[in-house]
Amino acid sequence: MVIRVLVAEDMHIVRGALVALLRLEPDIEVVSEVASGDEILSAARISRTQVAVIDIDLPGKDGLTAATELHEQLPEVRTLILTSLGRPGTLRRALAAKVSGFLLKDAPAEKLANAVRGVAAGRRMVDGDLALAAWDTVECPLTPREIDVLRLTAEGRDTLEVAAKAFLSTGTVRNYLTTIVSKLNARNRVDAIRIAKESGWI
After folding, report:
1. Domains, the chain, with CATH or none
2. Dist CA 193 CA 191 (whole Å)
3. What is the mean pLDDT of each run of 10 residues along the chain (202 residues)?
4. Are 6 and 47 in contact (CB under 8 A)?
5. 3 state DSSP class of 136
6. Distance CA 36, CA 171 (A)
7. pTM across the whole model
8. Could you give the 3-state DSSP secondary structure of residue 72?
9. N or C, which end of the chain has less CB nearby within 10 Å?
10. Could you tell me the CA-to-CA distances from 9 to 3, 17, 22, 154, 179 in Å, in that order?
């Protein structure tokens, strides 16, 4: 039985390499290629995708947001997240998004095909060392709303822009940022962004 795969990666050379590797496998067929998170749901629906291989950092909707959307609207589609960031916090976010697998981009080529087969068969495919690290890691102390505010701030937006984007008042945004800095024992918001990024929380 051939596994129908969608590949979502914004870097053309990387996407081409992934597609070429998968097409070497007799039991895997790449039925769709997309370059942004916004394209994933409709492409998966049209191509009757069984496994979506998704880069975590995509333009438009990021990979985890797209994976969550797939889980909610096309629950039969399994998702395999690719990332260059092997951080336990990133894995925790991926598992919270109900992804089926999590693979580092620098993993050996044969691991990709095996991970696709595994998630297609209904198994969860996660790097063992990373899973153990995530198990031992302290969970993110920030609420989802605080993470949203910090992520928007990390994108270089000022308080007014964050407030408009998050539908909050500027005072509320400032309060969130003060709380975030306190919770992370950071020196300031720049330090809070660094801590959150290094932990894989944003």
Report:
1. 3-136 (3.40.50.2300), 144-199 (1.10.10.10)
2. 5
3. 95 93 94 96 96 91 89 94 71 76 83 93 78 58 90 93 93 94 90 84 80
4. yes
5. helix
6. 34
7. 0.66
8. helix
9. N
10. 19, 10, 14, 22, 35
